[in-house]
Specification:
Elements (H helix, E strand, L loop, with lengths): L28 H4 L4 H4 L7 H5 L1 H17 L2 H15 L11 H7 L7 H5 L11 H9 L3
Family: Belongs to the POMP/UMP1 family.
Protein name: POMP protein
Pfam family, one: UMP1
Length: about 140
């Protein structure tokens, strides 16, 4: 018989449908972490996703325009500069204004919402510098 033993068991349950922890098992907190209802919600407005991905869409449009005008080297060079700027960070307990990224994107002369209401002196998230560095380095 070329079909094998699987053809004889017509009422069997495929193994992929049953998880290792059981068919009626709930959410495994240790393996999957806490559930977040926020991640499972659909956008409440059609423009919400567009607004959330505005900077990414604007970068893609700018790269496409730059490629059409100057060639492939210009957006590649700009993307390398973006990656280099993202890698350079301050210590975790110091506020960073990301001025280099603003200059690369052309936002250094614009005043936005985050410029006025993102004052680090009014921040509630200020920790002990030594503890934050040890956490970043994985010593804790």
């Amino acid at each position: 018989n070329s079909r094998g033993a699987a053809s004889l068991l017509k009422d069997s349950i495929p193994f992929t449908d049953i998880s290792a922890s059981g068919l009626f098992e709930g959410h495994d907190l240790l393996r999957r972490g806490f559930t977040s209802v926020k991640n499972e919600l659909l956008p409440s407005h059609p423009l919400e996703l567009t607004e959330k991905n505005f900077q990414l869409n604007q970068d893609k449009t700018n790269f496409a325009t730059l490629r059409n005008i100057q060639g492939i080297h210009a957006p590649l060079k700009l993307q390398m500069e973006f990656r280099a700027v993202k890698q350079v960070q301050r210590l975790p307990f110091l506020h960073s204004s990301n001025m280099a990224m603003d200059i690369l994107r052309g936002n250094d002369e614009c005043i936005g919402f985050e410029d006025i209401l993102n004052d680090p002196s009014q921040s509630e998230v200020m920790g002990e510098p030594h503890m934050m560095m040890e956490h970043k380095l994985g010593l804790l």
